[in-house]
Amino acid sequence: MTTQISFRNVTKRFLVKDRESRRRTEFTAVEGVDLDVARGEFVVLVGPSGCGKSTLLDLLGGLTEPTEGEIRLDGVPVTGPGLDRGIVFQQYALLPWRTAQGNVEFGLEATGVPRRQRADRAREFLDLVGLKGFEERHPHQLSGGMRQRVAIARSLAYDPNVLLMDEPFAALDAQTRESLQDELLRIWQRTGKTVVFITHAIDEAVYLGQRVAVLTSRPGRVKQVVPIELADRTSQVDLRSSSAFARYRHQIWDLLRDEVSRAQRQEKEVVGA
Ligand SMILES: Nc1ncnc2c1ncn2[C@@H]1O[C@H](COP(=O)(O)OP(=O)(O)OP(=O)(O)O)[C@@H](O)[C@H]1O
C-alpha cells in the first residue's frame, strides 16, 4: 500500500474582521490534521457543519495554503491547483452555453489534448457515467443527477490521479443520490482512482468509504478513522439494511454526536455574539 496523499500537522487559520471592534482576529478552521490516503483508496471525511471539511479539500486542491503543516501528493508538497487533481463540487459548475459534450471537452482544453481526441475522450467518459445519447444536451435540458454526472465525467476525462468530491450528491433527491453512489463506486472500481469524498451524511459515508475519517467540531481535527469492512457494495442487494451496515452507522454516529452538539453550541454563540 503506497501513500499517495499525506496531511501532516495541517492547520488553517483565517483572518476575520470583528464587526464591533473592527479589528482583525485569527480564526482557526482546522488544526493539526494528520491523515494518510493510499493510492487507489476511497476515503470519506465526515464532520459537523463548519468543522472545516471543505477547507481541507480546498487545501488538498491547492485552492488555498495551510497556515502550518504540509500536504504532499505523491511525495511532492501541494503548492497550487493542478491537473493531477479533479474536483467535483456540490453545485455542478457547468458552463450553461455548452452541451454535455462541450463541458467535458472544456476540461480537456487545458491539457493540450488535440481536438479530435478531445471529442472521443468526452464521449467515452459520458458513456462511463451513463450519459450515452445525451451528449448534445445543454445543462438546462438535463436533470440534477445528470448534470452531476457530467461534472464527474469532466473531472475524470483529463485523467487526474485523485478525485476530490465536496458533497457532490447533497443537492439530489434520495433515489438519484443512491444510484449515483453506486455509479461512483463502479467508476472507482473501474478506474482505480484515489477518491477523497466529503459528506455530512453518515449513510453515504459508510456506503462509500473504505475508511471514514470523523472530524471534530471547529477547529476540525481528525477524531478517529474507522475502517469499513463491508464486502463489495454494488454486488449486494440491500447492503444498507444489513446488520454490519447498521453497526458502522451507529459507531460513526456515536463519534459524531458530541461534535454535532458542540458545533451547534458554537453556532449559537456566534449568532448571539
Ligand atoms: N475564506 C474564509 N475566511 C474566513 N473564514 C472561513 C473561510 N472559509 C471558511 N471559513 C470558516 O471556516 C470554518 C470551516 O468552514 P468549511 O466550509 O471548511 O466547513 P465545512 O465543514 O465544509 O462546513 P459545511 O458542512 O457546513 O459545508 C467555518 O466556520 C467557515 O465560516
TrEMBL record:
Transmembrane segments: none annotated. InterPro entries: AAA+_ATPase, ABC_transporter-like_ATP-bd, ABC_transporter-like_CS, ABC_transporter_ATP-bind, P-loop_NTPase. It holds the Pfam family ABC_tran. PROSITE patterns: ABC_TRANSPORTER_1, ABC_TRANSPORTER_2. The keyword Cytoplasm does not apply. Residues 5-242 form the ABC transporter domain. One of its GO terms (molecular function) is ATP hydrolysis activity. Keywords: ATP-binding, Nucleotide-binding, Transport. This is NitT/TauT family transport system ATP-binding protein. It comes from Actinocrispum wychmicini.
